[in-house]
Inverse folding.
């Protein structure tokens, strides 16, 4: 099973993206970092009071002055513990506020930028993988914050602090600890670097598994209809097996890394105790100093031991976030021109002037294509599959950018106006409409999101879907399922038409909008469409020629150019391609016999 190509941004790009949001919360970040500093200062000072207490009681004599000194040392030690407890509470609150707010901002940013990518971008990507990347983008920040601020910063501050204290006690002791700690950290960094490709590969295979699962599950009906369960199990199983191998390689490396860390920690502990013993033998250290050294070492080991794990977590988080940051850095294929203005439609005249277009991975579709549609004119586009009919409508909606020429609406070049204003002025009903997994009321209202319930119901009545909606248990509050799968094809089509009726844009594009309807429903919809078309510029893509006989003009498209144009009767007299297509359908080769049998051609766009 072929998987999606892995594209990941560099670590510095991830940090820049995260810093852009982190700097928006200086107060929370300041309290979080400041609390960590206080925690580590108190963690270093506390054992000094404990050392003083041990030295006092080890003298062996008891007097009021000794008792007072020991008590004050205990009070000092206890005070440090109380301050640490308070600082931890502040750090946890500030850290939680910081992470939660930034994660929300990251998710919003990722979604907003992702959704403005081009139609081509989404047809080339797995929706499941894109969804996973958005989630990982915010989750990775939480992991990085926990690792860098919650662990690495703690370890750095504590390590520097105890080295300074021990250096002050005896330079040999401080230098020995500094050297051993530095070596320990360097070894962990080297091992984490060795693991980075392994963890990047694990993240890649994990994304591939998500994409493969989403692809198969979203096409479950096709799998069942073509008895493809075993084929899909084999394909998805192969992707999962690759993830298994990546996980085992990563976890095996962890086992060896933990083994090396254990050897270092034992060696460091024995070495420090031996140096301390020699200094005590020379009279340079006290019993309290031994307790201080051991207390520091246990705290140091707890913090430094986890650095290797944190470095690996950081690498994993960077790899996960890098997938989304790559998309955030990816320029839009379709974007508004600098200074783009809103489109203003008066007459609704449409011009295609010497338009040329072709897909990157295929042959040219349109070749210096010219077509003028007058305001209020109803035009049908017909022709063989691959002629460029659906491509023309997608170019009008600017789902793709043309290579040469111009497309104008009322004299305004659509590449010079904002995309939102362009699409607001065009109502589009596709051949296979896709609905949100929301209520019928919400799906229809999407045509004009500020519409009242009354307006929605009126549009539904005009599209003749009010009848079947009224029979549902929850009526307009019925959820239609993912992509509208709970509705029949005809019902989905009528909901899409109701949405277009509610939008009521001056330009209407119908891509075989009645193809999924039975004959009775089609008659009702055709009646509704006549009302909808009044006063609008209408472009209809038709495969079933009987549905467009009464259009003002029929344009025959062949090999990316206009082959003929005229009314139904004029084109039949012309004895050209239209006459041939009409003869095939009317002659009974593939005829509409009233039972819904029809010609349904594939979209001319290549599979991506």
């Amino acid at each position: 099973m072929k998987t999606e190509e892995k594209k990941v941004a560099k670590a510095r790009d991830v940090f820049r993206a995260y810093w852009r949001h982190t700097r928006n919360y200086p107060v929370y970040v300041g309290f979080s970092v400041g609390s960590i500093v206080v925690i580590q200062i108190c963690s270093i000072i506390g054992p000094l009071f404990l050392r003083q207490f041990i030295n006092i009681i080890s003298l062996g004599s008891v007097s009021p002055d000794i008792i007072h000194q020991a008590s004050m040392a205990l009070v000092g030690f206890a005070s440090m513990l109380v301050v640490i407890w308070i600082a931890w509470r502040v750090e946890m609150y500030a850290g939680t506020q910081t992470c939660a707010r930034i994660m929300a901002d990251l998710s919003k940013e990722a979604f907003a930028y992702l959704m403005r990518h081009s139609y081509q971008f989404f047809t080339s990507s797995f929706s499941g993988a894109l969804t996973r990347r958005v989630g990982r983008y915010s989750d990775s920040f939480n992991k990085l914050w926990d690792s860098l601020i919650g662990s690495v910063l703690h370890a750095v501050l504590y390590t520097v602090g105890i080295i300074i204290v021990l250096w002050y006690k005896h330079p040999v002791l401080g230098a020995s600890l500094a050297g051993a700690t530095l070596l320990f950290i360097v070894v962990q960094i080297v091992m984490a670097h060795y693991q980075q490709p392994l963890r990047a590969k694990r993240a890649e295979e994990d994304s591939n598994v998500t994409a493969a699962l989403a692809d198969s599950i979203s096409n479950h009906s096709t799998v069942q209809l073509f008895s493809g369960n075993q084929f899909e199990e084999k394909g998805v199983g192969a992707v999962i097996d690759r993830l298994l191998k990546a996980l085992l390689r990563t976890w095996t490396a962890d086992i060896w890394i933990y083994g090396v860390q254990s050897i270092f920690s034992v060696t460091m502990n024995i070495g420090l105790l031996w140096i301390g013993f020699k200094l005590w033998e020379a009279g340079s250290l006290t019993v309290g100093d031994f307790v201080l050294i051991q207390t520091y070492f246990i705290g140091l080991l707890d913090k430094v031991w986890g650095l290797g794990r944190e470095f690996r977590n950081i690498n994993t988080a960077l790899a996960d976030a890098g997938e989304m940051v790559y998309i955030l850095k990816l320029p839009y294929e379709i974007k508004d021109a600098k200074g783009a203005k809103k489109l203003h439609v008066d007459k609704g005249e449409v011009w295609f002037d010497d338009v040329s277009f072709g897909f990157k991975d295929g042959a040219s579709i349109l070749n210096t294509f010219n077509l003028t549609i007058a305001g209020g004119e109803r035009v049908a586009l017909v022709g063989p599959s691959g002629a460029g009919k659906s491509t023309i409508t997608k170019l009008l909606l600017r789902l793709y950018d043309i290579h040469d020429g111009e497309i104008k609406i009322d004299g305004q070049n659509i590449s010079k106006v904002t995309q939102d204003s362009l699409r607001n002025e065009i109502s589009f009903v596709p051949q296979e409409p896709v609905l949100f997994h929301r209520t019928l009321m919400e799906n229809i209202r999407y045509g004009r999101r500020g519409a009242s319930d009354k307006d929605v119901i009126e549009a539904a009545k005009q599209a003749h879907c009010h009848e079947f909606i009224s029979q549902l248990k929850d009526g307009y509050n019925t959820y239609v399922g993912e992509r509208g799968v709970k509705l029949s094809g005809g019902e989905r089509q009528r909901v899409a038409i109701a949405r277009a009726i509610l939008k009521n844009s001056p330009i209407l594009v119908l891509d075989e909008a009645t193809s999924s309807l039975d004959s009775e429903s089609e008659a009702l919809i055709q009646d509704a469409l006549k009302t909808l078309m009044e006063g609008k510029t209408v472009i209809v893509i038709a495969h079933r020629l009987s549905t467009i006989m009464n259009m003002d003009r029929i344009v025959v498209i062949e090999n990316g150019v206009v082959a003929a144009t005229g009314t139904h009767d004029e084109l039949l007299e012309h004895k050209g391609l239209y006459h041939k297509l009409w003869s095939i359908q009317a002659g009974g080769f593939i005829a509409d016999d009233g039972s819904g049998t029809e010609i349904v051609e594939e979209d001319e766009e290549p599979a991506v």
Notes: DSSP finds 18 helices and ten strands in the chain.
